[in-house]
Amino acid sequence: MKITIIAVGKLKEKYLKQGIEEYLKRLSTYAKVDITEVADEKAPENMSEAEMQEVKRKEGERILSKVGQDSYVVTLEINGKMLTSEQLAAKMDELATYGKSKIAFVIGGSLGISEAVQKRSDLALSFSKLTFPHQMMRLILLEQVYRGFRIIRGEPYHK
């Protein structure tokens, strides 16, 4: 399985980079995982709705340019479907079983994702009704993907 995480913005926090490196190392046993960063747009504090939509549109174009035609696209959205770890694992297993071996997870910028990216999405996934920094979501997502592979293989993992 090939997993691509497409994320808006650069990761600066050393502690997050270390956690991500650890999970990428752990995941190398199960899948090829790449993280692709796309540039974020400058977003001043007091933007109009039209300006916010324009920022999301530009980031969305960058995201879509990195999505493969044959990829199953999972967007991380606050209003997406909530799954348990077991359900996410079952979805990953189902995709692999039915020949969808390329999965692209999309983490938008601070304003979310564009309508065009939402339309390309095969599954809108929410990790919580809480709002998390989009940089931190990379680490949380990698941990859940790793947990998913452990569940699929029937390997122990702390609950």
From TrEMBL:
Keyword Oxidoreductase: no
GO biological process: methylation
Catalysis performed (reactions): pseudouridine(1915) in 23S rRNA + S-adenosyl-L-methionine = N(3)-methylpseudouridine(1915) in 23S rRNA + S-adenosyl-L-homocysteine + H(+)
GO molecular function: methyltransferase activity
Protein localization: Cytoplasm
Keywords linked to the UniProt accession: Cytoplasm, Methyltransferase, rRNA processing, S-adenosyl-L-methionine, Transferase
Subcellular location, principal: cytoplasm
UniProt: S-adenosyl-L-methionine binding residues: L76, G108, F127, S128, K129, L130, T131, F132
Domain of life: Bacteria
Binding partners and assembly: Homodimer.
PANTHER family membership: METHYLTRANSFERASE (PTHR33603), RIBOSOMAL RNA LARGE SUBUNIT METHYLTRANSFERASE H (PTHR33603:SF1)
Family: Belongs to the RNA methyltransferase RlmH family.
Function, as annotated: Specifically methylates the pseudouridine at position 1915 (m3Psi1915) in 23S rRNA.
Record HAMAP family: 23SrRNA_methyltr_H
Listed name of the protein: Ribosomal RNA large subunit methyltransferase H
Gene: rlmH
